[in-house]
Structure formats: structure tokens, C-alpha cells
Amino acid sequence: MAYWLFKTEPETFSIDDLKSASQQRTFWEGIRNYQARNFLRDRVQIGDQVFIYHSSCKIPAIVGIAVVVKAAETDPHQFDMNSDYYDAKATHEAPRWVGVTIQYQQHLTPITLAEIKANNAITELALKKANRLSIMPVTDSEWQLLIASR
């Protein structure tokens, strides 16, 4: 099992939206960064644990946990001309983008970006390095450290 952090803007899709979704599951679509796509396609597996991180909001923070319940599949939104995630270069024969299905596990007392940056024991998490990736790995030790802080 691996650990991940998935960023989302809470005005678009929040931890509360995930909790209230059908079967508390959602297909994590709209990833349009190649490094994040490669993580989803090549490394994220069923059973992996995911921190849900609210970004682009008043207080950016880890707000909950989800689990991956379905491995990478083609993101159908890349073919929908009416979607914000449409990609004119993607074809059904050669899709460019994937997503995974995650299921809600629990809310957390928010772990703010300020707290994460102030914690000297957290050295590997790309979030701490002002990384703009929407999907990033979390080491086992840093996952445990962050969970223990709550």
C-alpha cells in the first residue's frame, strides 16, 4: 500500500462532496499534468490511502482520507467537447488522461499548509516545497506523522 495526497478546490469538489456522493465514491477526473497523470497511471493502486487536500481556499489544508477502490481508467471527460477537461488531441485510440476511483474514509481535523511547512520532520512531501502538482506521493513515515498530529 502507498500513500498519496490529492488536491482539490473545495468550491469545485470538497471532502463533503465526496462523503455525500453515491456510495461515497467518485472518479477523480480532470488531471491534466503529465507527472500527476503518470502517478495515477503507473503507481496509484487499489487500496492506497489518499489525503484529500483543499487548495486555492482561505486556509489550505489536509481535510480527510479516502482509499483508492478502482485503478486508473481512461478519463472520459477528455473526449467531451462540453467538458472543462476536454482535450482536442486525445482520441479513443490514444487517450492521454486517466483517473482513479476513490472512496471516502473519514474527515480529519484540518492539517493546515502552515502546520505542514512548520514541521521540520516533514522533508519529502512535495507540498512543502511549493509544488503545484495535484497528485503527489506521501512517504509512510510522513503519513504516520501527519495522522498522529490529529
TrEMBL record:
The record's CDD domains line, in alphabetical order, gives: EVE
What domain of life? Bacteria
Coiled-coil annotation: which residues?
A: none
Mind telling me which Pfam families this protein's record contains? EVE
User: Which InterPro entries is this protein grouped with?
Assistant: 5hmC_binding, EVE_domain, PUA-like_sf, THYN1-like_EVE
EVE domain location is 2-147
- PANTHER family reported for this sequence: THYMOCYTE NUCLEAR PROTEIN 1
* Name this protein carries in UniProt: EVE domain-containing protein
Q: What is the originating organism of this protein?
A: Pseudoalteromonas aurantia 208
